[in-house]
Amino acid sequence: MASLKEDPILEIDGIIIKDEFEIGKPVIDKLREDRPALETEGTVIKGESVIDKVREEGSGGQGERDMVPPTSNSIHRSGSRPQLDLSKAAIEGNFEERDPTILLPNQSDDISHLALDIGGSLIKLVYFSRHQDRPTNDKRKKTVKERLGISNGNRRSYPILGGRLHFVKFETSKINECLDFISSKQLHRGGVDSHSWHSDTSSNGNAVIKATGGGAYKYADLFKERLGVSLDKEDEMDCLVAGANFLLKAIRHEAFTHMEGQKEFVQIDQNDLFPYLLVNIGSGVSMIKVDGDGKFERVSGTNVGGGTYWGLGRLLTECKSFDELLELSQKGDNSTIDMLVGDIYGSMDYNKIGLSASTIASSFGKAISEKKELTSYKPEDISLSLLRMISYNIGQISYLNALRFGLKRIFFGGFFIRGHAYTMDAISFAVHFWSKGEAQAMFLRHEGYLGALGAFMSYEKHGLDDLMVHQLVERFPMGAPYTGGKIHGPPLGDLNEKISWMEKFVQKGTEITAPVPMASSGTTGLGGFEVPSSKGGTLRADASALNVGVLHLEPTLEVFPQLADPKMYEPNTIDLANHSELEYWFTVLSDHLPDLVDKAVASEGGTDDSKRRGDAFARAFSAHLARLMEEPAAYGKLGLANLLELREECLREFQFVDAYRSIKQRENEASLAVLPDLLVELDSMTEETRLLTLIEGVLAANIFDWGSRACVELYHKGTIIEIYRMSRNKMQRPWRVDDFDAFKERMLGSGDKKPCPHKRALLFVDNSGADVILGMLPLAREFLRHGTEVVLVANSLPALNDVTAMELPDIVAEAAKHCDILRRAAEAGGLLVDAMINTSDVSKDNSSSVPLMVVENGCGSPCIDLRQVSSELAAAAKDADLIVLEGMGRALHTNFNARFKCEALKLAMVKNQRLAEKLIKGNIYDSVCRYEPAS
Amino acid sequence: MEHNREVEIDGNSNPIQISRLALDIGGSLIKLVYFSRNSGDDEDPPKDKVRVSNGVNGRLHFAKFETAKINDCLQFISANKLLLGGGFQHQENCTNDRSFIKATGGGAYKFSELFKEKLGISLEKEDEMDCLVTGANFLLKAVNQEAFTYLNGSKEFVQIDHNDLYPYLLVNIGSGVSMIKVDGDGKFERVSGTSVGGGTFWGLGKLLTKCQSFDELLELSHRGDNRAIDTLVGDIYGGMDYSKIGLLSTTIASSFGKATSHNKDLEDYKPEDISRSLLRMISNNIGQISYLNALRFGLKRIIFGGFFIRSHSYTMDTIAVAVHFWSKGEAKAMFLRHEGFLGALGAFMSYETHSLDDLVVNQMMPLPVNASLGMDTNYDPLKGDLNGTESIQCSVYRA
């Protein structure tokens, strides 16, 4: 296509298109007649009238996508049921506010298990609600399954059904709230008669709930009386270990380090987990060497623990609660009470033994001063001094024990920590100090739930034993940002209550949206044994409180089999650990929020109800953003993909099932109208020209992306012609990343050598409308022509204007009306079984066509985390030898650096300046065509 | 002021010649060690003493003051003419007239101006660790019946074979705690420590009780019952042992754990109980960390010293129990009779009168403690005095 450079003329398939677009006329005319315009791929659209129309229609649009082509690592993926009617999704009546999920009406959802950890100050509940897959009637699916050799039987081979694991806590002193909660959700009953899981309970109401913690004894009678259930006591230590093992194996971003205010998640290889030291800091401290599931030994402990902190703290200060005491420590200066090395050595360091002047020589050593009494010391200082003394001591003893048994990892949990940044810093410092940097203290996000989880695991046949990380997806409830990992309010019933709750927050003026400036790194200054360089005012007491979401168990999720190195795979390309990066994307998301709300409200008919939901969504999402700004790791590791998926989840939470429905529809129609002419044009080209034109078409069509702010602005300001012209101009090769020649050689060979065609290509599609219809479908058709099976991979749930697996069959069917290749392939792939197409008489003879199939990817995000894909995608991928990832979300924001066992083609137009600079050192609208041979 | 009484008790009517003085100025206490020559060098040496020609017989004296009352100390030094130096001119290799005394501890830096001003002498600073180790090595090798174990109220002296002394772990419990692995004379490494030490006991104790002195607090602990304040395993498991993990119901699960009760305030707890609880918490902790460090380096012996212990039986007992508990009986805590003076002794040994160290070491024979002092019936625990070890009969040599 060198000619492009010389000439302002586009050459498509050997047809020259001039700027005036004469050649594109038929297409354009058509567009002019009926639709808002789209074009792409070699098709040119002209016509200002169209543009005006687009302008109008687009004005309500939001498009936050440009920033957002996210990937979703984890939010919800409904295992694989694109066939569910999302429009009827409802929030289950008794979901408490922390539960972010929407229940799909066709699924039965049963509470199956409840387990308790009743401690001295908190009661922790873990319960599991499951949902059954509804029978698969979907013919497409059936055919796909047959094709791919995954019969339903395959799915049934999973012994467990999907469901959700919920985490809830109450103050022990308010145990009645807890009982009410259990009763209102019938949690105690669910365990009894719902399913065969619970063979050990009889149906006569003699229900048994697994419980651990001291309160399991203390409150046994109360449970019996109020709920008629018996508490089956599980050993505390057993539970702790079982809970920790489960979390470390099942949740990807569970463990983290915390040094000088910086939190960093640690990826732990499941096969290299054991042995480790588990330090549980309750009133006292237990140190447990864990060698495997159920294999552990309490090797040490100390009586100087949380009870000592709180007990001494209470005696020494007026604090009324543990949290108050902890909070006080933030403002303290322990140098008024502790004797520092500098106090002894006259502020010189005692370098010889590596102690600096600010090292604490003697905790409370200054309190021996005769002139002073208890009242002469500030409670803040006392609290900090106590906190350091105890944290350091625990850190030191833990390290010594780890050393003794040669344990690399030390995990700290228990109520003393409570996500408190200083405490974690102090412990980490001690471990770091004494180990001279060789050992690291780690903490767990769900640390408060170890016991409850362990009790939960002690049910026989809970079926979670073999749970794999990829089957769990964690999602955060609307209320998460408000509760900040703390005890949450009363359970919320229905959607309406949720909205009211949200509104109440706003009325109360509760400060939820103002992001707290993050402490710059190192400001905790908790130099371990040293005096903090800052007194801690920069860090909120609860700054490190981590939210705990609901774990969705999706047994059908699998690791994408073509990943070259699943262990090393990191979906996110952009690391949001960088604060400026984080800020940028937050700004982008915030800026686009109003548009999105408009669109969402419009998609629901603009009713008052939808407006109210829209407001609530905006508040909830803003709160999530604010929370993440102040604590990026609040929900676990944060990548752009997670952020983008969070937004989609948030929309679903307020029952906006598909904000872009009408837009997608309109664009699909417009594009389908143009398609036949495009295909004709393509067919008139030589194979080589056509291949380039097709790739160009994919790239150019990718500009029509409602997720891109830049593009949405184009819709608003420019004409379609202008957009397309610009897009085509950018198409001039070489592209910013341009492996087309290599790809062409693979496809067409060089010289006389005809390469062997691909057996099966997986095409990960992106947007609805022009993108998929004028870009990807023609490319798919080309593969089919070469005799390559094609699997179109689309979202399970809507995300922005991305096309979904549910929508694709109709689109393909419509396209097939005008194209034999597509029709035969679609028939072969089972996409046309409904005989929507009657032109198929002819097709019988050609039934030998390779199939065109559609599979869902298992997610509802603009990005994709290939560690968690639907089983049907996984099955389809096994025989694939080419993967085409298209669009920013799936090819750039995520997976740009992913390596595959088979060949991969990554195609995208970069619609964000910052990303362009960062990723490819280019500019907005640059194109990426990256071809990677199998690795 | 803890004026040692050896001068009087000694019963030696001859004028004492103070020969040498060394100081250990810590965060809370100042320890003095000085040598007094017996009036005549020919005084009868103890019978087990190997007499070396040219030796000087005399006594090592030990005294201590609270650091806060440093003026008492200065006065004591000056009143007893400790600076006169007697038979051992420490200035012999010193070209100027300025006299100096060896000193260690942080206060050697902090108060050096004060000594200059008040006494006109310079403090020559000796490294604290060096002094501790030197002092301990000296005691362990040179003094009979210096080390003992303490368990269940009974003290048992341990005879340590000099050839099998090293390596050992020296745990010095002052305001803070230093743990030192000692491999030989002058060969040692500070391997660990903790800030939870004597200062913590006294500091917290002072805040929590009305005690006016460390010793008063310690004394209180005798009468206390920590079960009123500590959460025991039995409190959690309803009086049952949590035998599965080897915890008795009387094991402390959480020090001060009961103080979290909302119904009670500080005044509701007896100072005795608080003191006892504090003492157990700190002693136990030190014992545990010490054991873990000994284990780490494969050290058989852990020797505890420092002023926190003060030969306080309950303190020693707790530490011993902690070591015993965590080591499952395999390690033993040992204590030194002169535990509080390791640093001062070490500083004393550091005078370079042609290497006094060598002289002493060369003597190597055990030096018996003055019997009359060892069994001092006037021992008053409130004064925190040691078991009558205020002086050691010894000989030193000039090279």
Automatic annotation (TrEMBL), chain A:
Residues 55-67 have a biased composition (Basic and acidic residues). Keywords: ATP-binding, Coenzyme A biosynthesis, Hydrolase, Kinase, Manganese, Metal-binding, Nickel, Nucleotide-binding, Transferase. It catalyses: (R)-4'-phosphopantetheine sulfonate + H2O = (R)-pantetheine sulfonate + phosphate; (R)-4'-phosphopantetheine + H2O = (R)-pantetheine + phosphate; (R)-4'-phosphopantothenate + H2O = (R)-pantothenate + phosphate; (R)-pantothenate + ATP = (R)-4'-phosphopantothenate + ADP + H(+). Residues 598-919 form the Damage-control phosphatase ARMT1-like metal-binding domain. It holds the Pfam family ARMT1-like_dom. Residues 70-81 have a biased composition (Polar residues). InterPro entries: ARMT-1-like_metal-bd_sf (IPR036075), ARMT1-like_metal-bd (IPR002791), At2g17340_3_helix_bundle (IPR035073), ATPase_NBD (IPR043129), PanK_long (IPR015844), Type_II_PanK (IPR004567). CDD domains: ASKHA_NBD_PanK-II_Pank4 (cd24123). The keyword Zinc does not apply. Its EC number is 2.7.1.33. GO terms for cellular component: cytosol; nucleus. The keyword Signal does not apply. It comes from the Eukaryota. GO terms for molecular function: ATP binding; hydrolase activity; metal ion binding; pantothenate kinase activity. Pathway: Cofactor biosynthesis; coenzyme A biosynthesis; CoA from (R)-pantothenate: step 1/5. Residues 55-83 are annotated as: Disordered. Gene3D superfamilies: 3.30.420.40, 3.30.420.510, AF1104-like, Uncharacterised protein PF01937, DUF89, domain 3. GO terms for biological process: coenzyme A biosynthetic process. Its cofactor is Ni(2+); Mn(2+). Catalyzes the phosphorylation of pantothenate the first step in CoA biosynthesis. May play a role in the physiological regulation of the intracellular CoA concentration. Functionally redudant with PANK1. The phosphatase activity shows preference for normal or oxidatively damaged intermediates of 4'-phosphopantetheine, which provides strong indirect evidence that the phosphatase activity pre-empts damage in the CoA pathway. Hydrolyzing excess 4'-phosphopantetheine could constitute a directed overflow mechanism to prevent its oxidation to the S-sulfonate, sulfonate, or other forms. Belongs to the type II pantothenate kinase family. In the C-terminal section; belongs to the damage-control phosphatase family. Phosphopantetheine phosphatase II subfamily. This is Pantothenate kinase 2. It comes from Populus alba x Populus x berolinensis.
TrEMBL record, chain B:
Pfam families: Fumble (PF03630). One of its GO terms (molecular function) is pantothenate kinase activity. The keyword Lipoprotein does not apply. Keywords: ATP-binding, Coenzyme A biosynthesis, Kinase, Nucleotide-binding, Transferase. Gene3D superfamilies: 3.30.420.40, 3.30.420.510. One of its GO terms (biological process) is coenzyme A biosynthetic process. Pathway: Cofactor biosynthesis; coenzyme A biosynthesis; CoA from (R)-pantothenate: step 1/5. It catalyses: (R)-pantothenate + ATP = (R)-4'-phosphopantothenate + ADP + H(+). It is an enzyme of class 2 (transferase). This is pantothenate kinase. One of its GO terms (cellular component) is cytosol. The lineage of its organism: Eukaryota, Viridiplantae, Streptophyta, Embryophyta, Tracheophyta. The keyword ATP-binding applies. It comes from Populus alba x Populus x berolinensis. Its EC number is 2.7.1.33. SUPFAM superfamilies: Actin-like ATPase domain. CDD domains: ASKHA_NBD_PanK-II_Pank4 (cd24123).
